[in-house]
Amino acid sequence: MSRFPDARFLVSAAAPAQFPADVGVEVAFAGRSNSGKSSAINAVTQRRGLARVSKTPGRTRLLNFFELAPAKRLVDLPGYGYARTPAAERRDWTPLIEALRARASLVGLFLIVDCRRGLTAGDHGLVEWLSPAQRLHVLLSKADKLGRSQAARVLGATQAHLGGRATVQLFSALDGTGVREAQEILAAWLGDKKTPAV
Ligand code: GDP
């Protein structure tokens, strides 16, 4: 059963004024286009069509907010890294993500990185974009595409590269590798202690 049975789409924001109220907690998901971000969102939330919204034409360049539980949100950032993306469009989302970073409710970022490609310039840009107090967790996606030892090597190299700044794990939406681990981290960041808050 889904950890977030009541997850729902909230809003596609083209401007900070359209963001939901800055209360509660939220976690952003970002990654290069085709990194497997939508598949990761669907696997981690166990809500198959959730990220489909973000693939809807016209919404791919927007910040898509989902409510996973009351006052607990997931923010899906536009995929980046396509050389084809017009410069004007790329400039467009700078004020959006700057406003996102400034939100008190943003506790951290899940960065989706294709394990065969490793960290790209766009990924590094996002790592630098995060405030030091905001946490970073890297999903090395499509881990099913690598053999065990190769996957372990990529994991070790990425961990070493990011040092203490991030936690890193192997992940596959296809065969389920690391899905539970990612769910635990997301739930912990969102403050889900499985006991009623007092
Ligand atoms: P997004 O563009 O980053 O949202 O990526 P998608 O989730 O749409 O996935 C991009 C492509 O990668 C699609 O063809 C998916 O089927 C494929 N993909 C996503 N996750 C996995 C995975 O865990 N394993 C494999 N082998 N392919 C995957």
How would you summarize what this structure contains?
By secondary structure, the protein is α/β, with parallel strands linked by helices. The protein has helices spanning 37-45, 87-101, 121-129, 148-162, 179-189, and strands at residues 8-13, 25-31, 63-69, 72-76, 106-114, 135-141, 167-170. Helix 1 (37-45) crosses helix 5.
What's the helix and strand layout?
Elements: E1 8-13, E2 25-31, H1 37-45, E3 63-69, E4 72-76, H2 87-101, E5 106-114, H3 121-129, E6 135-141, H4 148-162, E7 167-170, H5 179-189
Parallel strand pairs: 2-4, 2-5, 5-6, 6-7
Antiparallel strand pairs: 1-3, 3-4
Helix pairs in contact: 1-5
Bound molecules: guanosine-5'-diphosphate.
List SSEs in N-to-C order.
EEHEEHEHEHEH
CATH first level: Alpha Beta
Morphology call: globular
Number of helices: 5
Distance between the termini: 26 Å
Examine the coordinates and then state which fold CATH places here, giving the name of the CATH topology.
Answer: Rossmann fold
The CATH superfamily is known as P-loop containing nucleotide triphosphate hydrolases
Small-molecule components bound: guanosine-5'-diphosphate
Q: Give a quick account of the main beta sheet: strands, pairing sense, barrel closure.
A: 7 strands, mixed
Strand order of the largest sheet: 1-3-4-2-5-6-7
CATH architectural group? 3-Layer(aba) Sandwich
Q: Name the helicity range.
A: 25-40%
What portion of residues belong to β-strands? 15-25%
* Nearest-integer average pLDDT: 90
Main structural class: alpha/beta
Unreliable spans are none
Number of strands: 7
The domain tally reads 1
